[in-house]
Design brief:
D-amino Acid Aminotransferase, Chain A, domain 1, four-stranded antiparallel sheet, 13 strands, alpha+beta, about 325 residues, Dna Ligase, domain 1
Length: about 325
Amino acid sequence: MKRKLNITALVDKWTIPANDPEFREKPKELTTEYSVIQTLRELGHNVSVLGCKDDITIVVTTLNENKPDLVFNLTEALDGNRCMDMNIAAVLEMLNIPFTGSGPAGLMLCRDKRLCKQLLTIHRIRVPGFVSVAPDQKIRVPKSLHYPLVVKPAFEDSSEGISNASLVNNETAFFERVKFVHEGWNQPVIAEEYIAGRELYVGVIGNKHLTVLPIRECFLDSDGTEGPRLTTYRVKWNAEYRKKWGIKFGFAKLDDAVIKNIERTCKKVYRLLQIRDYGRIDIRLTPENKFVFLEVNPNPDIANGEEIAEAAEKAGIKYEKLIDHIIHLAMCRSQ
């Protein structure tokens, strides 16, 4: 975008540093909020920061008073409830303010792992066999499901609630893990068949025209002989743990035919789930080169040097250009 805009960065209030409410000082560990806000300023836009916690009326009042040209939406929860991220987007829609990222429909479809997989199954897109168990519901494992199963919360992301113990090999372990998730997260469980193979992450940006970014991979021990078989919370967020097990994130080396097939299907998934502007799709690629969709993230990390930004840079899209493109996508949608 060449025009200077008045942009409000809407963030989760807990991410705002007490001594730096405008995100002007570079933190020791780079955050998405700082990366985006600082880049917006470097692009020449006027940027204000608005924290969202539990009282949505404050957000509504502030936005009505300031009337920004665009809200750069970086929120992930409301009052700690991740399922409420769709409500924040719905409020922005009702205020008729352009905002970045997916709308309430896309956030809802991706948040509920059960609903997401049901929808993809209808459209003949391969997902693991799964069962859902709500709290206080009688637990039954369909005979069609085969162990090992991966047991995790139905509504979380960033691998929350996923550890090595999430991979269960029998009914006793399954019951124990379901109980653990119900008590710890107070939400339904989804238990899905473990898919052996390579774990791939496919970033997609765009709306009418979609660009699939170079495919990233988490290099871990899918056979479980030397280390974790899942991208657990510690795998994703603990550098020392990754070092211990030799786990690295990098770019996948795949045959052109496999890449084209993945790209085509990921574009279909992106549109089916009504993702907007940018998103990430997680898949497992089996030794037979069949890919199985695990999860879809409509709000992936866009910090400089992370996930989407890293893949975009490999595709020749520098970070400033990526943020500028996201602004352009959101503004074009509002017109």
